[in-house]
Amino acid sequence: MRTEFVQQFCIDCHDQYTQEGGLNLEELAFNPSDASNRRRWVTVFDRVRAGEMPPEDGDRPDQTSLEGFLSTIDAPIIQVLRDETQTLGRVRARRLNRTEYENTMHDLLGIDIPLRDFLPEDTYHDGFATVAQAQQVSHHLLEKYLNAADAALDEAFGRALDGEREPFSHTYTSAELGRKVGQRDPWHVGDKTIAWSATQVYHGRVPETEVKRTGWYRITLHDAHAVNINSNQGVWCTVRTGVGFATAPMMYLAGVFRADDTPRDVSFDAWIRKGHLIEARPTDHTIERVRGNKLNNYRGSARDKRPLPKVPGLAYTSITMESIHKSPPPDEVAKRLFGDANVDVEMPRDEIMELVKRFATRVFRRPLTEDELAPYVLLVDEDLKAGVSPRETLKRGYRTILCSPRFLFFNETPGELDDFAIATRLSYFLWSTMPDETLIAAAEAGELTGKRTRQKHVQRMLDDPRAERLVEALADQWLNLREIDFTTPDAGLYPEFDETLQQSMVDETHAFLAKLIRDDLPAANLVDSDFAMLNERLAKHYGIPDVHHEQIRPVSLTPKSHRGGLITQGSILKVTANGTTTSPVIRGAFINERILGVEIPPPPDNVPAIEPDIRGAVSIREQLEKHSNQTSCAACHIKIDPPGFALENYDVTGGWRTRYRNSRNKTSGLPVDPHHQTADGEMFQDIEQFKQIVLRDPEQIARNFTHQLTTYSTGAPASFSDRTVVQEILEQTRSQQFGIRSLIHAVIDSSLFLHK
Asked: Fewer CB in 10 Å around end: N or C, the chain?
């Protein structure tokens, strides 16, 4: 029946000569055992079931023929996938990514040094760094893991057995900080140190604060306040660390704060490398700034005669720098490593073996059999026979354990997961780290295979501060915020953009996702909401009045706000644009794939990309019309272009616009025209009308979010055969309007999560 259906309804457009959409059904055999072939037939299935094929202007099948054809594709593919799952599992070998590895080592050893930089960048599949299919292992990667383990164990053993290094603490008074007066150094005025709102890079750097050793430091600016401001006005400032010279231009953000006319102490914790110093300065590009060369006047004894700039500035009386640890104290580190044992004395073999077994059990996240422990016992015996000290014997044994696949990979077997495997999945899903003692105890008691007790643990974990890691992971991976720094808006076209604004954008998205999870808000909020999470700086950029608070908080929106949901947040709009122009294609593809759940295939190899016109001579609509009118492009652009054009009123910084900026005219370029029509032919005039069309089908928004959660939490995308389970998840949460927290619970309770 499949062949007859294709011959009657499909072959005219998809034979070896026409091949519309690059599909040649004349030569496409049906072989569901082949993954590539299977994907092509799933695409055919979806297009036919959605009514997109055969086209409306052609010969259309009756319902019986249609259902019969679909069943000839559906049933065989599902059977093949279920057979593969039963034999191999949905997920292949899932490995810890860089973030999970670092968090786990910190919790396991009680250390706080960065470790992810030891490892190469993660590979991403479907947007996520957790997908097993993309995680390869090589000798090079194993060497990196060895280096990371060595650094971690050196730090842990040193703190546990040798004690803390002598702490550093010093308060730099204004007199100390005012020794140098130059273009980039803050000014010493009376008892104050002042950094001005200036165009000069590194202005506000404090050479005296250069650190002598790498580590965590607490930076406190005492009596920080703004100068040269009006009443109720504030100045947004940043504290950064780095070399502070053009020879090493990279600077690292330690914190953002708003200074007003009331002095207060502000503190930030930052990892600072040896030789780096502190820079504290106003970084709000929406206020008046002084050119750098205007600051390079007067030096030495003449400095008190110089006129003060009339622009806003950040003043403070002193800076305190103190070394800290964000990890437990040495005695707690020792307890994690050695329990109550004294490692610096002669230890009997049995006691050393007990420590190795204890450590391996924690590292592997489950009890070990004697056979599993045997290789590590053998290594310890070899060291003891060679006269190696207990300390070094344990360290080398721990190093071997930390490089074992049992640690680096999830220990799962095809079929239903046991309690320990569920504990691991839960912990890395919600916390991006190893299970805590409570979760391991629950696994030992067999509580996690029971739905009611498992849900109690999920509630506890979602309410824990560590659940912020879930928010960060979803933002960085699903929403691509890891690329927030990849482009910098052109300073000539977008002079209002600054680092404070960018950080506020990221904070907005994090706070928004956290609120959706905490309050179990409906999934429709991903597209539109009646609130936004804003501070003063971001509200000013969005043109939303009467927001004066420093911290991100919920703010009610009106129709004039042009905001609401994820898709109009500055962070999303920035990562879907370059530093100069916006593209409806890039934004449209992102919204389709990440928010709406519409898969967009890659463009044909023979179709060139659209070159941006920064001169503003030709509108993006005119460029796209020429591009998408090509037959090979039209099938995808009918889906891509609608959300892309709906977002055209937002520039590369996420600001609202009615005209384009360009190199010839920054304020009165060509007018923005966001109107378009959906793939179904329904017209909309702007983003608000587009949102309302999308919101008619909240189930599709929830379905896509369920797919995203499934991919991230299990390490494999939901397959064709998983669609019935996804639908069950949606039915379970329908009465909660597909609440975000409810969807998380339902995914965890599904067979997709509870089976390999």
From this structure: N
